[in-house]
């Protein structure tokens, strides 16, 4: 069989499933020291180190002058891709922008009768760095990642956005990355990858100004670099391998379910694909389809490994029990492949993105519909959310107390300060109420 077959009857069965899934969390601590050294080297040696790392791992003949892509090269890439592809990219960008515009938050103020004003001021961060993996030899560029990371930053109002991506061996970037950047109006692109690119965005070099927030997916070196920089800069999240859970009834099409499970399994050998259903017959037919379809995939070997290790069909007695299991799994992507998905949506508490019904496969959200595809993984969706405009904003509280406010409440504030042993705090308030 291509994946595990399990049964879930209630919470008593969860421990075994959780222990299985938690093995995907094992950190690769071997890279911690390597990444720390890379970050320290970039911080101390700047562009020189950036060139050395890039020459060693990506482009042997790279020079310092080539680290930054000229703006005319970015704009010129629009003429190097088919017009049809350009139109598709433009439409996807519009959809994603429209969705994220609805996330914009406004500053707000309240005024009391005594004249005191309280409020919250929402402002974008000054500068953002976006990392875009080059894909297999630069030939499978993650253009959707550039779209999904750039647009919420732009909607937030960030004025300075830098993009880094590893160059191909000949020192160029895939034209689709450049064309997508041009369509987004991005003008700053640097040729660097892996942990040294993250270090350059965080600390700055002679050619790259430091950033306040860094976003974008990457391999273990990228993820480790971002995690080591937490507290010095903001990051989107430290994402783990991709995952999908599907809650399905007997109205679902097993061919479609298998295709949806494989859409995640082909990402990575650690990707998890789980079908939860109250129909044993549907589970069996889906497994048959998984065998057939995996054999036809270009990345079939990767998908087969992911399914064997982290794939499962789990039989539940009813959909209520199925929803309970989904909430415990807390998946990155959830498909409700049900005859009436809306009647079950209220039972779902933990899922990064929810795809409703038989005609909403996960790739619709990955590429085109509008919601962000940068989502929490490894059950962190229990306390975190999709990448959004808020990741690129900061909020300042505003307090404008009136003289009458301090006169009325000063003694209370001073008392609270003294309870904490902070006499200067108390006197700071009391001195304003002294009569001259």
Could you walk me through the main structural features you see in this protein, from its secondary elements to its overall organization?
With 436 residues, the chain is of the alpha/beta class. It has 3 domains: 30-108 and 120-235, Nitrogenase molybdenum iron protein domain (Rossmann fold); 240-383, Nitrogenase molybdenum iron protein domain (Rossmann fold), CATH 3.40.50; 401-433, no CATH class. 43% of the residues lie in helices and 16% in strands. It contains 16 helices and 14 strands. Strands 1-11-10-9-12-13 form a 6-stranded parallel beta sheet, sandwiched between helices. The N and C termini lie far apart (87 Å). The model has no long low-confidence stretch (mean pLDDT 95).
Key terms for this structure?
five-stranded parallel β-sheet, 3 domains, Rossmann fold, alpha/beta, globular
Which stretches of 5+ consecutive residues score pLDDT under 50? none
Helix content: 40-55%
Strand content: 15-25%
CATH superfamily of the largest domain: Nitrogenase molybdenum iron protein domain
Give the number of DSSP strands. 14
Mind summarizing the main beta sheet?
6 strands, parallel
* DSSP summary: helix tally: 16
Q: List the helices and strands in order.
A: EHHHHEEEHEHEHEHEEHEHHEHEHEHEHH
CATH topology type of the largest domain: Rossmann fold
The level 1 CATH classification of the largest domain is Alpha Beta
Termini, distance in Å? 87 Å
Sheet with the most strands: spatial strand order = 1-11-10-9-12-13
Category by helix and strand content = alpha/beta
Into how many domains do the coordinates divide? 3
What's the architecture of the largest domain in CATH terms? 3-Layer(aba) Sandwich
Outline? globular
The Rg value, from CA coordinates, equals 26 Å
